[in-house]
Structure formats: structure tokens, C-alpha cells
Amino acid sequence: MRFFLSVITALVLFTSCASKLGKVLKSKDNEYKLKMAEQYYVQKKYMNAQQVFEDVMPYFRGSDKYEDMFYKYTYCAYYQKDYMNAESLFKTYTENFPNSVRLEECEYMRCYCYYKQSPKVDLDQTATSKTISLMQAFINTHPQSERVKQANLIMDTCRAKLEMKEFKAAQLYYDMGGYNYRAAAIAFSTLMDDYPDSEKGDEYKLLTIKAYYKYAELSVVDKQQERFEKVISECNDFKERFAGSKLAPEAEAYKAMSEGKIKGLTKNTIK
């Protein structure tokens, strides 16, 4: 019974609000409409505010009220999590009001809207890459802004996401095994080049070594010595670049195993 009454109450309130909004939209008094749009905005009824702003803005275009209206209209989209539309509106705001005191804020918010569209790691990361590009442009344009610190943190988050996506692609080659080990080794090596400051550089290098070792093992005998030598070369590079790594002993073990394989191949050749 209580649930039924709650549903009825909610329907009555919704109908009442919808009826009131309808009356506002039908009004011929544009000043009244603007007042109601502002009221809806303050009340955080962003969908209502958006509809009324959208209806009345053409009448105020060119007036001293238009910029503030467009600003709030833009945030209506943002607060409803319509980030694609909000990004476009923030961009339009910066183009239409280049001398606004809110210019820096809206340039940042445009970047932030791209960030909010950044999907899970496994999906297309176009929005993530775009976020990095736009945030860097924002920092270059506003180096003294108080938003620079946050912009840098967001870029770090986006780079970590792109790094993880690239890592997963390399790991997939590795997990597929067989002659995909060579593709995995190249992918892990590329990952290191793309993210030279990564804290996981030694892990990527060791995975490169492992992949090349497994690839060498699967190779035809005539190619094995050359490919085990490649493993040794990668192990030597590991020692130079990550001498203090806790993974160094494992890299040395792969070097020793590869040298042993080459010795075995040499003996068989002599026989």
C-alpha cells in the first residue's frame, strides 16, 4: 500500500512539474522564460533549464545576457553527463566569447569532457589520446593556471590507460604462443620505447627476453643459434639498463640458458 501511494505521489509530482514546464515554454514573455530557466538551473533541474534556455536563447542573441545564458546552457549538458554535447558547447563558447573571463575555465572543461568520455582500457582510446593532446595544449596556453596540476594528473592517468592497453595487446600475442612469440617480443619492446619512463620498464624488458627465448626454442635448428644470440643481446641490454632490478637474476638465467643452447647446437654441428 505504501509503495502504491509513493508511486502515485511521484506520478502526480512529475505531471505537475511537466505541466509547469509546458506553461513556461508556451509563454510569450521571454524575460519570464529566462527567469524560470535561471530558477531551474539554481534548483539543479538541468533538463528543464536546458529546454527553456534552448527555447529562449535566440531572442537574447547579441544582448549582454547571452553569454551567461550560453554558459549555463553548456553546463546543463555537462551536469546531465552528456559529455559529447558539452564538449562541443564548451568549444563553441570559447570561440564565441574569446575575451570572456571564463575563457580559461571553459577551455579546461572542454578537455575535461573528453576525459569523461575516455572508456575502459579494452575499448577504443581515441578520446583518451585526444584528452592528452588537449590538456597539453591547455597547459602550454595557461602555464600559470591553478588547473595545471589537475591537468597533469589527468594526463598521467590517460597515459597509464594507454600503456595498459598496449601491454594487454602484447600480452595477448604472448598468451597465444607459437610463432606469435616474435610478435609479442616486438610489441613489448615497442611498449618500452613508447613509455620510457614507465615504472614497469624492467618487467617489459624481461617479457621481451622471455618471448624471444620461446621463439628461439620453437625455431628450426638452422635459425636457433641466431635467435638465441638475440636473447643474449637482450639480456645484456637488460643488465645495462636495469642493473639494480629485482628481475636481474631472472634475466641472467635466460642468458645462461641461451648460452647453453648455443653450446649444444655447436656440439651437434661439430658431430
Automatic annotation (TrEMBL):
It comes from the Bacteria. InterPro entries: BamD, BamD-like, TPR-like_helical_dom_sf. Keywords: Cell outer membrane, Membrane, Signal. Residues 36-176 form the Outer membrane lipoprotein BamD-like domain. NCBIfam families: OM_YfiO. This is Outer membrane protein assembly factor BamD.
